[in-house]
Amino acid sequence: MSDRTLVAGIDSSTQSTKVVVCDAESGDVVRTARAPHPDRTEVDPERWWEAYRTASGSGILEGVSAIAVGGQQHGMVVLDEQDAVVRDALLWNDTRSAGAAADLTRELGGVSAWVDAVGLVLVGSFTVTKLRWLAQHEPDHAARVARVLLPHDWMTGRILQHGNGFERWTTDRGDASGTGYWSAATGDYRLDLLELAFGRRLAVPEVLAPSAPAGRTSDGMLVAAGTGDNMGAALGLALSPGDVVVSLGTSGTVFTPHDHAIRDESGAVAGFADATGRHLPLMCTLNAARVLTAAAGMLGVDLDTLDRLALEADSGAGGLSLLPYLDGERTPDLPLATGTLSGLTRTNATPANLARAAVEGMLCNLVAGVDALRDQSVRVERVLLIGGAAASRAVRAIAPALFRAPVVVPRPAEYVGVGAARQAAWALSGAAQPPAWGLRVDSEYQVPAGDTSDVLERYAALLAQMHGR
Ligand SMILES: Nc1ncnc2c1ncn2[C@@H]1O[C@H](COP(=O)(O)OP(=O)(O)O)[C@@H](O)[C@H]1O
Ligand SMILES: O=C(CO)[C@@H](O)[C@H](O)COP(=O)(O)O
């Protein structure tokens, strides 16, 4: 009988729930499972619970001493006085509240007022804008709302309720910092901003300290605070100064732990908090892994064949460019945008060039995020590539030249889940710092000779031409 302590991390992200069980001391992943979510931008939270129950139904949590949830950020989960869900949650990638974001920005006195208040330039992803949309467009639902939570908050409470250990609703600094009514700089709620958006005050969850437990189930399993998925991924990677993470999941994100809250009135970088008591400046795009899925669908090939085709083409795809705003875009803030294929000629109209343009276009949007961190005086010495599309051979090969930095691919793992498991181990230990789980590297890719500035310049020129940015 093994005497090691096991901890579990849940990644409740956009497309699926992943369960990761780790050795609490070493961080070795010993069990994993996953189950899909509906492919929608508004989802009944019960679907997340069902996915969690499906993924953990095979006894994967047997012997686990502590658990934590890393959840997709910003989702609006609204409950009535009896803690019943009032309507489907609006997710981070639902853009219907883009107009509300513009209204709220104007009402508070402009972009700098919001950056001063909560470190964010409002876009439709953020929870506070969704509350305004709800108040304006669904007054009957809004009248029933007593409390607002984030996806990870609701899942954490649901696990405790299921285990007869629920005491109160909780959240953490990291996820709270993405609401638009909590400040990473001060560590305080700004419920005046919630009231500005919704028209009245609502109950909000208690913000727990990074290693504080949210509670224990009746069989003794500790449930930690949990956090947002990107904060979880940062905690799951043993990052060193100069490391910048690029995550290629449903969203594309660029982030790095930082010692102080950043101010970016351009809106490229959000001033989030991390899951350890520091900060996590982060850029997020709505379009990442699914740009490659869409390109593969257009070509009628699988993702492995898309990789092969992209690697057959030359850098620059023969002059073919793709602005990858297939679901609108968050950064740049173009919620109504669509994708644009540009520079098509009879010469470059080949499957290989289309595949290459999809990879380059998706990455160019994230290069803007890395450069935005550089503009915030963040040192970028290497890029750690995670998320589903980090498995792409083409992405790995093309990224270093575009990022102008070496690319490290950690050993494939669900790093949001690993980070949540590390938080669970930290809460279980009661130590001052999280356990020292090392970074396991799968492969490294150096910046090749040659110049890719033409690709980046063409992308920027197309963005300016199409959207005046
Ligand atoms: N080898 C691959 N090449 C490109 N994309 C991939 C590959 N493997 C998985 N993906 C994509 O990764 C995405 C899932 O990544 P994940 O990080 O789990 O997403 P999320 O956390 O947003 O739910 C899917 O869109 C899937 O198509
Ligand atoms: O909105 C953000 C970050 O601000 C997204 O990163 C969401 O947190 C969803 O993440 P994934 O499902 O793509 O992991």
Automatic annotation (TrEMBL):
EC number: 2.7.1.17
Residue ranges annotated for the Carbohydrate kinase FGGY N-terminal domain, each copy included: 7-226
Catalytic residues (UniProt): D229 (proton acceptor)
Enzyme class: transferase
Keywords from the named record: ATP-binding, Carbohydrate metabolism, Kinase, Nucleotide-binding, Transferase, Xylose metabolism
GO MF assignments: ATP binding; D-xylulokinase activity
Record function comment: Catalyzes the phosphorylation of D-xylulose to D-xylulose 5-phosphate.
Protein name: Xylulose kinase
Recorded name of the encoding gene: xylB
